[in-house]
Design a protein that fits this description.
alpha/beta; Rossmann fold; 6 helices; 8 strands; 33% helix
Length: 213
Amino acid sequence: MTATKRYREIEISLGNLKTIGNFRHAKNSKGLIIFSHGSGSGRMSTRNNYVADFLLERGFSSLLFDLLTVQEDAFYENRFDIPLLTSRLISVTEWMKDYHDVKNLSIGYFGASTGAASALNAAAQLGNKIKAVVSRGGRPDLAFAILPHVQSPTLLLVGGKDGIVIDLNITTQEKMHGICELRIIEGATHLFSEPGKLEIVAEESCDWFTRYL
């Protein structure tokens, strides 16, 4: 599967800031999934692009974009600035709501690692505009304060060998007032790099988005 053949690059204008997105458009799309990547990652993440390709085959359009500009990413602390990342995600979400290919589609978020915190934060602020959230190896502890305000049905996917991240996600589920399910993928580490584990992530995510979008 060659990811570069599955998407087209689009330019997203946010005032004086422009960012590039990897946009996949599914015919008769079931919904739009916007990805929020983890620290040190970006729109070219092989894992997120794998999941996006999987979703495309099952009828979901998607967008992967860089949460930070090159200049912003040069400052390490920006990678953990959840308010900044959340603001950027919300701005891109609002922009995509008017994008001609996916206008009026239901929207879901897929957040990985620290990106899960910004996805949950944005979902809390946007309310029922975000129909579902999936967190892969997420760090929702960076968004603990807002978890009770998240209305979007949320799926927490964690590797069975991910140590403390499992505990953080258990606590997350306890803090959520809405629909929230935790699924531990046995034998997987934080990056789900073991054979077949990322495919399980993609399948679980697809099922979740199909159910709620």
